[in-house]
């Protein structure tokens, strides 16, 4: 969010759309690759929707073309998009990967999470008694 705010203050909307579209296409492609890997490694697990493997493979062919064309035509925008994605790596290591955190770090993470949930109105139910309408 901080990187997006800085980009909005410095750049124009067209550039921001290019950053986000590159990131979206990259994430979509990685998701489809994950689907193919799961179909190959774990063919027996339950899937509510089954798709012929030609569909994701065709999608990946178009995806690769779009990604390569984007990298060729606007390498700076793609590089900034990758940097935006990589800003999440320290957050992952601080919040998820690091298991034996000091209590002060846990309290800080919990307070930032609570503040973010209240700010964005995304507080999950606490598992209490269901409210009647």
Describe this structure in words.
By secondary structure, the protein is mainly alpha-helical. The protein has one domain. It contains 6 helices and no strands. It has helices spanning 2-10, 13-41, 54-73, 75-86, 88-97, 103-120. Helix 2 packs antiparallel against helix 3 (54-73). 4% of the residues are buried. Mean pLDDT is 82; it is low at 128-133. One of its GO terms (molecular function) is neutral L-amino acid transmembrane transporter activity. It comes from Scopus umbretta. This is AAA1 protein.
Number of helices: 6
Q: Can you tell me the number of structural domains?
A: 1
Q: Show unreliable segments.
A: 128-133
Nearest-integer average pLDDT? 82
- Counting DSSP E segments of at least 2 residues, the number of strands comes to 0
Class per helix and strand makeup = mainly alpha
Question: In angstroms, what is the radius of gyration?
Answer: 20 Å
Assess the beta-strand content as a share of residues.
under 5%
- Shape, principal axes of CA atoms: extended
Q: What about the largest sheet?
A: none
Distance between the termini: 35 Å
Pattern of helices and strands? HHHHHH
Q: Determine the fraction of residues in helical runs and give it as a percent range.
A: over 70%
Protein name: AAA1 protein
Organism: Scopus umbretta
Keywords: Membrane, Transmembrane, Transmembrane helix
InterPro entries: AminoAcid_Transporter
List keywords for this structure.
133 residues; mainly alpha; disordered C terminus; L-amino acid transmembrane transporter activity; membrane; transmembrane helix
């Amino acid at each position: 969010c901080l990187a997006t705010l800085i980009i909005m203050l410095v750049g124009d909307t067209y550039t921001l759309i290019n950053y986000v579209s590159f990131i979206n296409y990259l994430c979509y492609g990685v998701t489809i690759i994950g689907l193919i890997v799961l179909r190959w490694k774990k063919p027996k697990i339950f899937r509510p929707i089954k798709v012929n493997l030609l569909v994701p493979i065709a999608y990946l062919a178009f995806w690769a073309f779009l990604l390569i064309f984007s990298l060729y035509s606007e390498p700076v925008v793609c590089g900034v998009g990758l940097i935006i994605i990589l800003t999440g790596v320290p957050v992952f290591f601080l919040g998820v990967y690091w298991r034996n955190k000091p209590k002060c770090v846990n309290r800080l993470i919990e307070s930032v999470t609570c503040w973010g949930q209240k700010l964005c109105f995304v507080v999950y139910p606490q598992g209490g008694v269901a409210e009647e309408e």
